[in-house]
């Protein structure tokens, strides 16, 4: 029976990795052109900020119920429903002209994204043994970033390609966005082949779920996500606009720059587990994210495009390379029947911070400029990095196994 369950888990991870790679490819292309698509539609920056905040507002409403639902119905249905919602919403963004239709599409994407990623961490945790889990989280993250590298490389040529061969939608960026909808639909197909791993249940998993999900440890683990989410939303979604306007980089160069950032991040992610063996997971998170803050400040202060681009690549790699370790740490602190609910809390606090930051960013950019937003992001990142180290580093113990065979193929965020 254990051999059969392990076989199912291995197959599940492989199928999930395929879906994750397609989703990463789609997200990279979408993120590259979404804000420029809005500007081409003639929307003001304030409205652009609202649209960037909208998915987070939706997450605040569905985060905890979605986590409870995932613990009740299983991870596979949540992944499938989330993937379909993202695909349908992306069609709305690409074809919509009025703010109402674009807003509906963005909202559907936000809801689907949250359903998908609330189930993501519990799914990985339940499809790997404790000795493999750290590598599995890191490898899954690497898959996302490598897919992002490919997506941003492909995405850099898509506007010109669609403009020349088959113009679609109201802007030159609508074609690439609709292409990502196709990728999202394709990503659902491998999820259909996943077989749910049976989970041990003690009592009624739905009883008292809000109280359990919001108890002390979950809230303390989630607090850094609020700070990091707010900091990220102030400036990170607008980096393409920042480089486009401050350094006059064209679309192709922007695509290459973002692709390099994803490639280096994917590579750096593989080094996080070995570092965690030496100093612990939480210390690894603090070290890498702390170093990234310095490069973020440098990116804001330099007038040289080449230095800013280098700082962006290094900042992205350092900031994200150890993030899967923190998620793994959080999942191990709670029972299996509460993992999706706690994942919902972690996601909810990130989205709450993102909603606040994104809503403010568009208006603050008009007053102070994007460079000031980068510095504000650095301050919030610093606080969000220091807190988990002070709160959890002393309690973190991890054993990272290096089996002779690679972990059931790769999985990452």
From TrEMBL:
Q: Where is it mostly found?
A: membrane
Q: Which residues form the signal peptide?
A: none
Question: Is Membrane one of the keywords UniProt gives this record?
Answer: yes
- Family matches, as Gene3D superfamilies: MFS general substrate transporter like domains
GO MF terms on file?
Answer: transmembrane transporter activity
**Taxonomic superkingdom:** Bacteria
Q: Which Pfam families match?
A: MFS_1 (PF07690)
What parts of the sequence cross the membrane? 12-34, 46-66, 78-97, 103-124, 136-158, 170-192, 222-243, 255-275, 370-390
Q: How does it sit in the membrane?
A: Multi-pass membrane protein
- Under what name is this protein listed? Major facilitator superfamily (MFS) profile domain-containing protein
Record the organism. Answer: Candidatus Thermoflexus japonica
């Amino acid at each position: 029976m254990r051999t059969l369950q392990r076989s199912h888990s291995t197959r599940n991870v492989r199928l999930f990795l395929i879906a994750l790679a397609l989703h990463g490819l789609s997200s990279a292309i979408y993120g590259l052109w979404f804000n420029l698509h809005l500007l081409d539609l003639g929307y003001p920056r304030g409205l652009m900020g609202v649209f960037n905040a909208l998915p987070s507002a939706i997450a605040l409403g569905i985060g905890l119920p979605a986590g409870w639902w995932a613990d009740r119905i299983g991870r596979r249905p949540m992944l499938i429903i989330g993937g379909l919602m993202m695909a349908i919403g992306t069609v709305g963004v690409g074809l919509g002209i009025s703010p109402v239709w674009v807003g509906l599409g963005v909202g559907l994407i936000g809801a689907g994204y949250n359903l998908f990623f609330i189930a993501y961490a519990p799914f990985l945790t339940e499809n790997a043994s404790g000795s493999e889990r750290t590598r599995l989280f890191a490898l899954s993250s690497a898959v996302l970033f490598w897919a992002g590298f490919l997506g941003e490389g492909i995405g850099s040529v898509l506007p010109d390609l669609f403009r020349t061969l088959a113009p679609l939608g109201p802007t030159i960026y609508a074609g690439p966005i609709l292409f990502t909808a196709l990728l999202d639909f394709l990503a659902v197909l491998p999820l259909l082949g996943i077989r749910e791993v049976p989970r041990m249940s003690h009592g009624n998993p739905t009883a008292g779920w809000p109280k359990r999900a919001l108890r002390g440890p979950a809230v303390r683990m989630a607090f850094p996500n609020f700070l990091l989410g707010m900091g990220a939303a102030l400036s990170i979604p607008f980096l393409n606009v920042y480089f486009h306007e401050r350094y006059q980089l064209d679309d192709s160069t922007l695509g290459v720059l973002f692709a390099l950032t994803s490639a280096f991040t994917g590579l750096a992610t593989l080094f996080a587990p070995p570092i965690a063996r030496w100093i612990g997971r939480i210390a690894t998170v603090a070290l890498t994210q702390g170093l990234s803050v310095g490069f973020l400040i440098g990116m804001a202060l330099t007038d040289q495009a080449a230095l800013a681009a280098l700082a962006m690549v290094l900042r992205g790699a350092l900031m994200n390379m150890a993030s899967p370790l923190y998620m793994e740490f959080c999942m191990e602190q709670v029972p299996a029947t509460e993992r999706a609910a706690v994942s919902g809390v972690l996601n909810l606090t990130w989205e709450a911070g993102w909603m606040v930051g994104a809503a403010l960013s568009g208006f603050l950019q008009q007053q102070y400029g994007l460079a000031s937003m980068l510095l504000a992001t650095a301050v919030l990142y610093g606080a969000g990095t220091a807190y988990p180290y002070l709160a959890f580093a002393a309690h973190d113990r991890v054993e990272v196994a290096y089996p002779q065979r690679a972990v059931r193929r790769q999985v990452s965020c």
